[in-house]
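note to self — DONT lose this again. spent like an hour looking for the file last time. sequence + predicted structure for the chain T wanted, 153 res
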Amino acid sequence: MRRISKLVKNVIKTAEAHCDGPCGVYDPASARIAGEAVQSMTKKMIELENNHGGDSGTAAYINTMSRYAAIKEEEAQKCKDELLVLWTDYFKPGHLDTTPNLHGIFWNAAKLCSACKVEVSVEHAQELMDAIKEIHNLFWASKGKEVPWIRAS
């Protein structure tokens, strides 16, 4: 038994990591994709309302609007989840040295996700995308990389 204990001690080494997961698993791209869906659905909801000239009682209108709303809310929650993982798992206290307002940036972005869930606001959807872009830039700067902000839409 002693030989096994000695062998285990010699083989197992202490591993240290910057974040909770292995390097390479964190990326703000998933928040961007969800944010783009929020913005797209918000625009589609407003367009649908405008194109129906106030006739919002038809089954087709109700069906389409409810689908847009469900997608918008689901994607806003995904976006919030992705941002919170970056905030709480990737960014560490040392990042506050270079970005003292880091907590405020993430807190505001999370609040925008909530606002986009309960509202149909083009302005808030754009503010969310702007916040995600800022987080994208902070994230890649923290890795010493310049990764361009590219939108799918």
